[in-house]
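User: I'm putting together notes for a lab meeting next week and I want to include a structural view of one of the chains we've been expressing. I don't have a solved structure, so I'd like a prediction I can at least talk through. The sequence is below, exactly as it appears in our construct file.
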Amino acid sequence: MKILMINKFLYPNGGSETYMFKLGEELESQGHSVQYFGMEHEGRCVGNSAGAYTSEMDFHNGSKLAKLTYPIKTIYSAEARRKLREVLDDFAPDVCHLNNFNYQLTPSVIEEIAGWRNETGRKCCIFYTAHDYQLLCPNHMMRNPNTGTNCEKCLGGHFINCVRGRCIHRSLSRSIIGAAEGFFWSRRKAYGHIDRIICCSEFLKTKMDTNPVFRDKTIAIHNFADRDTSEIKEKKEYVLYFGRYSEEKGIRTLIKACKELPEIKFVFAGSGPLAPEIKGITNIEDSGFKTGAELVDLIKGALFSVYPSEWYENCPLSVMESQICGTPVLAAAIGGIPELIKNKEAGELFESGNAKDLKEKIRDLYDNREKLEFYTGNCLKAAFDTAESYSKKLVLLYEDSLKGK
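Assistant: Thanks for the context. Below is the predicted structure for the 405-residue chain, given as structure tokens.
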């Protein structure tokens, strides 16, 4: 089977790229042919045999002249269609698997795939993995950055609320562009060409299903996480937070709870805009951003980790990583998080944004080592898909979709 992965970034940039690269690697190991289409960049590490990519769009450092054209190019991209057609003609994929494509590639690529398969008579199915809410909400998070509250006003295609709330970077102009993009592609019915939508949580699926165009195409499959096979380390006397230091991640709520538990040591591993607020708190050790073996060691050594998010998380890798390292998780009961924790099996849940509930749950877990030991044992049995088992599930879905063509 020939699979074309489509994503705006073709270099390591975030979770969707990690997902795409690992999935592509697994599919190739099973004998499938995988190529990639997206934006050209000096860090690009995957590609296609046609050598066709869209021009780099740098919203922060691009020239003034280039930036003048960005508002139009982020809604519709003739270049993306033209370059993608070169790849389609050269590679002739059986599956086009979309990931993050808005703004840099635009939904223009969906129309091009649909046009190509109609013109050539090729059986080619279009898959889309929803990593966030980008087809439902112009700022992708269903959260108003100005009020710091979660928001569902744009559901049903009411994108004018993005403008009213200035929801994209608190900017009126950017919010207008985001809303315009939503209206434009909704009117053109481009998303109706998608054959299957992979949602990384049941929670995300329920939101996607509010749109009748998506409702019969969605399927929920949690992301994959390969289990760490190295030895389990002895637990040390600290509670761990690892991730981004930002408001939507619940850092302020966690800091408040930490201050009221001075006898408990907390280790934070990450970076972000709220880093200055951690300084000077005597029972918080800020170890900075960690990856690889250093991060794994920190996770394995923690009594438990805390994931206090306050936005509609879907399938956070941090929650999964903690469990596969044998470390229970105390996490906010929001979005798709409860689907991963299974309350009082491999960890516990608390009310998102409630510092009092968080503090009490931290204190209870810290004092109850027998309970922690029970949770640790269950973590080691966590039945998450590996990249291999996940990719095999997708292949079955690909084949089933192709049969219907």
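A couple of points you could mention at the meeting. Residues 239-379 form a domain with the Rossmann fold fold (CATH 3.40.50.2000). The chain has two domains: 2-224+386-403, 239-379.

User: Perfect, that's what I needed.
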